């Protein structure tokens, strides 16, 4: 996109957002429409006269800054609507065609036509005498030729009707809020294709007759109903099939996986045994260390007690000698007297 096309795109979106916001009764600052419409008139003059002021575009830097500022504030004002969606719907509203009454969004018009086609096909195929309750319940392996083809087309139309119904219902919410994005159109068409596959899978390849065996009314029309539900809820069918695969993997398993689990368990047991042996070894070393420490403490205590006894005896001896000396001196004094 060139710079000129980008400016034109911004001006178009700003113009559409101003008209949408005013139509919704929202308050618009006065400078926004003035700025946008002045730039629009300037662009018209530049395109008509083929003149340019700078850079071959004709807009100054401050004018571009004001334009981007208006676009940003208008986008916040019209939220949850998107500027691109408003521009597309405004452009499509002026288009002319025989299916214009189906709405301003091209995807919705195409989906609506496809839904009507499936509906008319179901009615047309049901008119055929080869499509009836008996032939449609015979399945793929009990029918053949034209009868099988017509019945399978009938089931595919049921699945397609359910898929288009789901797509129209999903897109309706986005169109109502004006935040539909055309870049997701491919996802809607993929939903239709997935609906065909899911409807045929659940109608022909999954034994739904056993589930509806208890109800005769449902049992008579279980295949068209299953195809319709499969087309409408293709994501649910995928989840169911994915869950079935997980269950089979859990029930059956593979030889390689069992071998890997067995080797893993053996390695785990060996590691546990080694850890237990190391723990016992560490415990024994801790006990020996504790015993040595206790012996050293007892030895120190005994030494302290021995030293205390010897000191006591030495003090007693010194005290006794002192008493003897005093007694001798006293006796001498008495004799002298």
Nutshell version of this structure?
This protein has 337 residues and is an all-alpha fold. Helices cover 80% and strands 0% of the residues. The chain has helices spanning 3-23, 31-49, 61-77, 83-93, 106-127, 133-136, 145-176, 185-205, 208-211, 216-220, 222-232, 234-252, 255-336.
Q: What is the tally of helical segments?
A: 13
> What's the shape?
flat
Taken together, the total number of domains comes to 3
Q: How many β-strand stretches?
A: 0
Low-confidence stretches: 51-56, 333-337
β-strand percent reads under 5%
Structural class: mainly alpha
Secondary structure: helix percent:
over 70%
User: What's the mean pLDDT score?
Assistant: 77
CA-atom Rg in angstroms: 48 Å
Transmembrane segments: 107-128, 148-168, 188-209, 221-241
Keywords: Membrane, Transmembrane, Transmembrane helix
SSE map:
Elements: H1 3-23, H2 31-49, H3 61-77, H4 83-93, H5 106-127, H6 133-136, H7 145-176, H8 185-205, H9 208-211, H10 216-220, H11 222-232, H12 234-252, H13 255-336
Helix pairs in contact: 1-2, 1-3, 1-4, 2-3, 5-7, 7-8, 7-11, 8-11, 8-12
